[in-house]
Amino acid sequence: MASYVTKRLSIGLVTLLLASVVVFAVLEILPGDPARIMLGMNASPETVATLRQEMGLDQPAPLRYLDWLGGLVTGDLGRSYTYSTPVIELVRERLAVSLPLALISLFLSTAVAIPVGVFAASRSGKLSDTIAMGTAQIGIALPNFWLALLLVYVFAVGLQWLPSGGFPGWSNPLQAIKALILPAISLALPQAAILARVTRSAMIETLGEDFIRTARAKGLPRRKVLWRHALRNAMIPVLTILGLQFSFLLAGTIIIENVFYLPGLGRLIFQAINQRDLIVVEGVVILLVASVILINLVVDICYALVDPRLRTGR
User: Fold this and answer.
1) Which domains are seen in the chain, by residue range?
2) What is the mean pLDDT of the chain?
């Protein structure tokens, strides 16, 4: 198990290094002068030159990459010129919103999707299976921003049970969680629809295996066959989708964060791109890449726990 984890960790570190090169190179080839864009087209050449020197843009690109990479190793992501704040502080503030939102959304989608997928697979071809998968297809087709607006209209404007937007901070945990409920549901339902269909497909394939027929022939209860034997062996594709969904929920929620006016990582990236604050864009993007690699490592470890054959590469 230790060698398996070490191998996956080494692959993740190499991937992160290559990703840092790609991120830096992509931002380098973007047209326009970041310093002039930040100061405006009417700024004097002397002011632009001063800002370029402060941002390090007067240095060769390889030297700037090495400086940036050295900062990543030591945990220094630089300082935002728009916010006059260290990038790591901006990330920490926004992560306090995005991470709980992603975790709540993932919990809700998993709690809904897996029972629905198992239920549909156990009744494959029947009316209940058709209804469940038809509902899931509708969930996939519905845009999450439209669902978010609908939830705001019903639960915030109509019933006035939950706030329509904003985030009060974690000084009052109850109010903070209430502010995240509607965004979490908006994100969770479409993801649950996808996960339910994957769970159903994996379960149907597993239920056709010989060991399931053997378990049934031995007289094991149907519930035990489904939840203890079939589901565990169907978890590999489900874990893959869960890892991808968590990565998406952590960084790909720009629209939902704008609908609910949440100060998360998605909005931070969007604002930094608009303001051409390359230090913030580089730092946040590489941290998100690192988080995706870490999530994939966790998923790989879960693979090995679910299927011991993967630990030896068989």
Assistant:
1) 2-74 (no CATH), 87-312 (1.10.3720.10)
2) 81
